[in-house]
Structure formats: C-alpha cells, structure tokens
Amino acid sequence: MDVGMVCLLLWDTYWASNRSRDVIEQSTRHSLNFSLFYQGRQVGFGRVISDYTTVSYLCDVVVAPEHRRKGLGKWMLETILKHPRLGTTRVDLFTRDAQAFYGQFGFTKHRFDSMVRYPPGWPGNLAIVKTPTE
Ligand SMILES: CC(C)(COP(=O)(O)OP(=O)(O)OC[C@H]1O[C@@H](n2cnc3c(N)ncnc32)[C@H](O)[C@@H]1OP(=O)(O)O)[C@@H](O)C(=O)NCCC(=O)NCCS
Question: Atom 21 (ligand 1): residue with closest C-alpha?
Fold first, then answer.
C-alpha cells in the first residue's frame, strides 16, 4: 500500500480531509486494508476493522476521481466482502450519500437505530496514541 497516495485519496473526501499522515498511517496499522492499483499506481482504498467473528466495520472507501464510474469501486467492494475472515460477520458502515452504491451489495438501513459517541474536541483532536503493542 502506498501511504502517500492513500493520504491524497482520503484528504479529498468529506470525512477525512483533516487527518494527518501520522493518523492515517496509524489507523491503517490496526485495520484490514484493501488497496486498488492501476498501472502500478494506487487508485483506490478501503479498510475494515473486525473481530473476525461477529462484527466488522467498513470505512474509508474511496476511488480516485478520474477512475470512478468504471466498475472499480464495485470490484473492490466485492473483493472486500468476499474476504474469508469476514464471512461470518455483520458489516456496518456509515455513508452520507452512497446508499445506492452500497445497496447493490446487500447493505440496508440498520435494523435498530445506531448511536455514536464522539470524544471531546472531535474531530479536531486526532492525535497519535501509542498502543501497548508498539
Ligand atoms: C463511492 C465510490 C467508492 C464508488 O466507486 P466507483 O468506482 O465510482 O463505483 P463503480 O463504478 O464501481 O460503480 C458501481 C455502481 O455503483 C453506482 N455508484 C457509484 N458511485 C455511487 C454513488 N456515490 N452513489 C450511488 N451510486 C453510485 C454506479 O452507478 C454503478 O452502478 P451500475 O453498476 O448500475 O452502473 C466512489 O464514487 C468514491 O470514491 N466516491 C467518493 C468517496 C465516497 O463517497 N466513498 C463512500 C463513502 S461511504
């Protein structure tokens, strides 16, 4: 995976434009990452956080603007959802406006209302936190 290209892809989105390179790098270190390459250049990305048993969270799905609407996002999503370690899990995601994109893979509205807790100062407080394994 080309972290520099992943940063460029994510900085162009409505949800991750304020993440530093360090934060992006750390978030990928603790995720199952999927990278889409075209002629040796990274043009797409997505990642999953999972317990690999009951639940997974899919996020940061993006295809470079010049490569959109060519079926690449669909192929990447199919590939992600076919990953053998995710097979038994429910997959959650949030999206502002790509419901129709995800709908074709079986995503629907949550059965229950979802809730979220934002940490104090979010989203301006993104900082690198050392984890015990590092
Ligand atoms: C959403 C995204 C990843 C889709 O990737 P893509 O490569 O353009 O998608 P595809 O070409 O594989 O499209 C597959 C199908 O989904 C549809 N589709 C693509 N993007 C869509 C969107 N944003 N909303 C609704 N439908 C969409 C296409 O029309 C196509 O339908 P078809 O097969 O009936 O023609 C891409 O548009 C993107 O990076 N958008 C900006 C970031 C974003 O919004 N990501 C999702 C955040 S939750």
Answer: 101
